[in-house]
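Quick start: read one record
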Amino acid sequence: MSFDVLLPAIIVVAVMLLVAFPIHEFAHALAAYRLGDGTARMFGRVTINPIAHFDPIGGTLFAVSVLASGGSFGFGWAKPTPVNPLNLRNGRHGEALVAAAGPLANLILAVAAAIPLRYLAANLELAEQVALLTRVLIIFVQLNIILMLFNFVPVPPLDGSKVMLALVNPRTAWQLRPILEQYGIFILFVLFFFPPNNSIGGQILRPILDAIFGFLVGR
């Protein structure tokens, strides 16, 4: 892998771990606090301080996956935000709002980074002059979209499972929750690692990623 490919990936890893991951977890924590649960605040998680949200294993896996793929893929996580659903207003709907806050924060970050990227896409000469910045922005937007889409997959322990369980009727949610929580990791493994290099989940999410990216940057 050339240095020209590796350098923007290194920069994006740093920005994701120092900015995107903390903001994702901060969004969970702030939403929970606003909805009546002070657990995250008690543990010092209503902050964008990256140290408060850093998970050594998840952060390392993210860095390795991004660098190994040259910035085209990232798999990892921050320290999960502690939330007590019993304290939240609106029951499971409140829990869904807290869960959705994190992925939506990633979407907001993608939109924010896409604004200068859209300008550069319309000024190719300038984009070539700041090629490193252009590549960093492209990777940053793509990774934030990936994290949003992946986290919205309705399988535990991902945020999308709580959103999905709030949308179905209470009886269905009661029936589905224990099954999904028991087999969630296995389901995710099958979805995103089988078949190798062309997973079922990847085939589903890739067109959505491309469509959102194209919409944001004007391609």
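The radius of gyration is 18 Å.
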